[in-house]
Amino acid sequence: MSRLIVVSNRVSAPKDPASGSAGGLAMALSAALRKYDGLWFGWSGETVEKFTGELKIEDRAGVTVGLVDLEAQDVDEYYNGYANKTLWPLFHHRTDLAAYERSYGEGYERTNARFADVLAPLIQPDDIIWIHDYHMIPMARDLRRRGITNRIGFFLHTPWPARQLLVTLPHHRRLVESMFDFDLIGFHTREWMELFQRYVEVEEKGTVTPDGEVRAFGRSVQTGVFPIGIDVDEFLTARNSVLGRRTYDRMSASAAFRSMMVGVDRLDYSKGLEERLSGYEQFLRDNPDKRGEVFLLQVTPISRDDVDTYQDIRARLDALAGRINGEFADMDWQPIRYLNRTYRRDQLAGIYRAARVGLVTPLRDGMNLVAKEYVAAQNPDDPGVLVLSRFAGAAEQMTEALLVNPFSREELSDAIKKALDMPLTERRRRWEALMTVVQDTDVSIWRDAFVSALQAVVRPGNGNGHAGDDGAATAHAA
């Protein structure tokens, strides 16, 4: 069986699978590498005075990882700069926050080439290479330049931007052209895939076949929709663990017969946190009879705190939460519990289970696995209600959630009230439909669908060494 080589910016395979310090993507990739023998390669998170390309190999809970240190300039220009100040805001439709600086682009190109220099000698003829996310868009091109002819797939974990916004990026054509050195490009939703295809059709006069093959730049690449999910069995184990049950008991007791709502989001402007708090504030104004009967637990771990934009949003959220508490709190009730810390997954499972309402309201998101975790954590006999932004990738599948426009605080206020007042029969019906989606998009299904589609791709004439392979390219549609 072929080895699977996973490549991503940060190698965050958790040493403890139950730990809450790893995000959904980290858990998903760890699950993939436990099934397929191989390697997870990327940046160590450490800096050195001068780049050496020295590779460090570790074992993390059965996952072999390969780590390389970067220079401080690489981190500043490639990671903090082009990835987080240019591509991230652009891909989330925040061109007002995007910084287009030449040094960032140069650092992005240089660092991806350095990654390719270190990775290329490790690749064996039958290896399958799976590259992840916006940090690594040029990696296939750089590996091809170093003689790598293996199948290479790419998965984008963020939205793809509308064409009219992408063209604001200097050298956008060069970035997209580099993607045609992949064999397969995967997206969470049909919308993100079609936006990519539309760019190619309009800007490059390319063509798209009914099965998702995109042709431009004298080459072709297969595209497909592969909605990511959670490891359902592992999450249920965490939910039912001693700590998961203990956390549920603590939160239930802490609620003191009040209805708890929960939001769990990394600190980021794409998550709609200010809009969520404003919508909750509107709910408290609209429903004075509900004051004292409900509270919001907002768990928001700090991320990218060395980027100015994130420092600004943290200050605004601190002020907004404080103002709402100051205006509405009583001597025995506080409407918002706002926590800037990380919890283990088993603790989160207990928190989700205790929450009558789960608020997942990003302004724009690739998928958002919190929505699926919240559903999986619920008690089937007395489930909570998921309030979900229609701009999250999960909304394309999870249509039985209460879908809202997070930009409208009145709409969010109405959804909160509807969720709190929803009768048990409707809550059960909606939960059963949502849990079916969660199970049908388990991470193992996502993993196997993408790898199978990558193995099946045939690209004759592209010089990627695929001559003689049988079968047509396939993609798993949502």
Walk me through what this model shows.
With 478 residues, this protein is of the alpha/beta class. It folds into 2 domains: 240 residues, 3-Layer(aba) Sandwich (Rossmann fold), CATH 3.40.50; 209 residues, Glycogen Phosphorylase B (Rossmann fold, 3-Layer(aba) Sandwich). Strands 3-4-2-1-5-6-7-10-9-8 form a 10-stranded mixed beta sheet, sandwiched between helices. Strands 13-12-11-14-15-16 form a 6-stranded parallel beta sheet, with helices on both faces. Helix 11 links the parallel strand 12 and strand 13. The longest helix has 21 residues. It starts with a strand and ends in a 22-residue tail after the last helix.
Summarize the model shown:
This protein has 478 residues and is of the alpha/beta class.
Distance between the termini: 27 Å
Give the name of the CATH superfamily of the largest domain: Glycogen Phosphorylase B
Which fold name is given in CATH as the topology of the largest domain?
A: Rossmann fold
Radius of gyration: 23 Å
Strand tally = 16
**Percent helix among the residues?**
40-55%
Mean pLDDT across residues: 91
Structural class by helix and strand composition: alpha/beta
Q: What is the CATH architecture term of the largest domain?
A: 3-Layer(aba) Sandwich
Give the strand order, joined by hyphens, for the main sheet: 3-4-2-1-5-6-7-10-9-8
Largest sheet: 10 strands, mixed
Determine the number of helices (DSSP H or I, runs of at least 4 residues).
16
CATH class of the largest domain: Alpha Beta
β-strand percent reads: 15-25%
Kindly give the count of domains: 2
**Which outline best applies?**
globular
Low-confidence stretches: 461-478
